[in-house]
Amino acid sequence: MFDNIINGFSSILAIGPIIGIITGVFIGIIFGAIPGVSAIMAIAIILPLTFYVDPIIGITMLLAVYKAGIYGGSISAILINTPGAAASFLTALDGNALTKQGKAGKALDISLFSSVTGEMIATLVLIFVAAPISIVSLQAGPIEKVFLLLFAFTVIGSLAGDSIPRGLLSCCLGMLFAMVGLSTITGASRFTFGVTELMAGFTFTPMLIGILVMPEVINTIRNRTAPHHNLSLKNSKNRGDNRISFKEFRSVFKTILKSTGIGTFVGALPGLGSSTAAFMAYGEAKRTSKSPEKFGKGSVEGIAAAESANNAVCGSSMIPMLTLSIPGDDVAALLMGAFLIHGLTPGPLIFFEHTETIYAIFAGFLLTDLFLLVIAKSGFGFFTRVASLKRYFIFPCVTIFAFAGAFTAGQNMNDVLILIVFTIIGYGMRLVGLNPAVFIIGFILTPFLEQNLDQSIAIVGTDYHLFFASPFSWVFIALTLFFVYTSARSKKKRAKQI
Amino acid sequence: MKYINKSLMKLISALTLCLLAGVASAEWPKKPINVIVPYGAGGDSDLTTRVWADAVEKELGVPVVVINKAGGGGVVGTSFVANAKKDGYTLINAGLGNMLVTPNFSKTPYNFDSFVPVVKMTAVPLAVVVAKDSPYKTFDDFIAAAKKKPLTQGSWGASSSGTILANIIADQAGYKPKYVHANTTAASMVSVVGGHIQSAVSFPPAFGPHVKSGRARALVMNQKMADFPDVPTFSDYGIKGSFEGWSGVFAPQGVPQEVVDKLIAATTKVMKDPKVLQAYANMGAVVDFRQGNDEAWIAGMQETSSIMKGAAEKAKKK
């Protein structure tokens, strides 16, 4: 095993693969950071180009784009509150709150360090214990996933803020919007009112930008004449506010480890994706935090939890893909295509048939983390300088990127309409006190829940006891109940204090 | 980069178009060609199309850009192409689902006749798959058990090509499966291998790796494949019909014949390239190259379409 890894390193440490990784990291960060353009687009575009190079170079480059892309989303999320992807929208909540306090550097630091740590650990798990984990993950079928998703929904408790009823209402609205379009199960059109364009449902990226980003722009316009309204990002003069000290990092290290664990676990279960992992980790971090009231208002711990969990998914979604040829999410599916076209059929045999290539790719994973750390860190100065421009320079650009991003993702004018409609809805939600973040959670999790629930019902038929037949289910039922109980109790406690 | 290139190219070609307005379209292609894949990136249709696009690009001398317009079970992307300009610069990745199944089962703004078949690159035979420790060793065992008590069968949506073909098979064999709908056939293979469902209908790109590594067993499939020499075919069990998914490229009805001819010529060349053939074989697809003027192919598709129409009417009556 160890000699394989060392051999892997010796074949990755060559000019070709290193240039591939560096290019990949650059492309990934740029595509990830621009709102509306995602890493998956970058991968789809450069995939055919990699047919002509050695699989080691081609595949490590694609993976570098993937990892850097997931990370890149957090840069714009933190600095200008425009989460480009679902996975980084929790980072935007806390990260941008820190930026508004003048602590952008701190937020960027913690998101980079926790991303890289999460990825690194998940990659090590992939290298050393992929096979046993994949066997366990197979035990989680549709029934188990229903309970796991119900558990993920409990994060609403920690995001809903002061009013649980309003939080629940926002979530239900999100669920309702998620149901628009052609049902993947029955093929029936739901809530489309005969409009063909609605058959695809609401495209996620424009909706996300509309709900979370554009209302911010409207707010800035509305407050333009307000006195004391700061027109630009202020950077604290205090050096300590702009970096993360070792002490701070150590204090959140436990959260990072736990969130990485959650991310690795969810990533190894096919089909749940990085947002689910980030929600669960964030909820758990808030529950166990010493200062839960800070979450959503600039908590370093919150960023650490969300970022390490969603980046851990990058590494561990490779586990079911490589060992069982089961892609965990859409990016993994694309990467599996790349493996197949290069003649590397994923499956347990890949470790014996292509030992050298596969360990070189693993070594490339670890090297990517290193390059990501260095390249991203050296770019921070530039990123913050761009973001410190006056707001009347930044926000028109954000608006252009938002519209261009909405269009390019699907090359579809309807997506621009979706963006406009959801900008209005998102702004309206703020006015009446509904919670946009919880709305998004409802929207993201509902399709997964519906799909798995439908499958479970078909499997169970009339043997209802099957719902509770596996220990997996029991663990998640217990966790869900425990979570609901503790968040209700802490709410009561806080109410008493006030 | 490609996006920047593309928009630049678009601008330049738009300008030249203005200048050359009136000149006959003899020079097709002179700007990038878009091929719409009506499903997400990374699926079988997407990969098949990407390999094709990449290969014909060199023959045609202009970029052939693959664009994913997913959603609505392929309806959104396909309708987009049906309504696009008939200038040969917007093509559609066609398959069993978006051409023959969905138009018959759902209300769509297009039908099979809205398109001109250009080429078919690959076919994937449908198979019935069970887990390795399943008690059903042969398709006969499976039929016998399924007749006694409905078995769960993984598919991908009640009006998907998978379920409709599975229904035709089940009708002839005389059993009634209990469908479990995942969103992709790859996802239902996970449930088979994990022991959560008793069987699934699937295509080689999804089940191939599982069967080759011994985690799953294909009981029966549409046609013999070199990779699975011991698997009997449906006709061995007296089940009639063609149960295969396929992937090709169609153009909207009304494109100049010259465009279709040039595309066929370019594809004919690249389908001899061993690199392209190897890429398709690696994906688990069977190369089944057909040209748009192949009447047997068109007749076969029309027959399948009418079978689907019958099945849809039957489903509505229930």
List keywords for this structure.
heterodimer; A: 498 residues; mainly alpha; two-stranded antiparallel ribbon; 21 helices; 73% helix; 1% strand; B: 318 residues; alpha/beta; D-Maltodextrin-Binding Protein, domain 2; 2 domains; 11 helices; globular
Q: Per the principal axes of the C-alpha atoms, what is the gross shape of chain B?
A: globular
First-to-last CA distance of chain A: 58 Å
Number of helices of chain B: 11
Largest sheet of chain B: 6 strands, mixed
What is the architecture of the largest domain in chain B at the second tier of CATH?
Answer: 3-Layer(aba) Sandwich
- Regarding quaternary structure, how should these chains be classified? heterodimer
Mean pLDDT of chain B: 86
Number of domains of chain A: 1
- Strand/helix succession of chain A: HHHHHHHHHEEHHHHHHHHHHHH
The helicity of chain A comes to over 70%
The proportion of residues in beta strands of chain B is: 15-25%
Work out the number of β strands of chain B: 11
Distance between the termini of chain B: 53 Å
Helix-strand makeup class of chain B: alpha/beta
Describe the protein:
With 498 residues, chain A is mainly α. Chain A contains 21 helices and two strands. Chain A has one domain. In chain A, a hairpin with a 6-residue loop joins strand 1 and strand 2. Chain B has two domains: 165 residues, D-Maltodextrin-Binding Protein, domain 2; 111 residues, D-Maltodextrin-Binding Protein, domain 2. In chain B, helix 6 links the parallel strand 6 and strand 7. About 4% of the residues of chain B have low confidence. Chains A and B meet through helix 3, strand 1, helix 15 and helix 20 of A and helix 2, strand 2, helix 3, strand 7 and helix 7 of B.
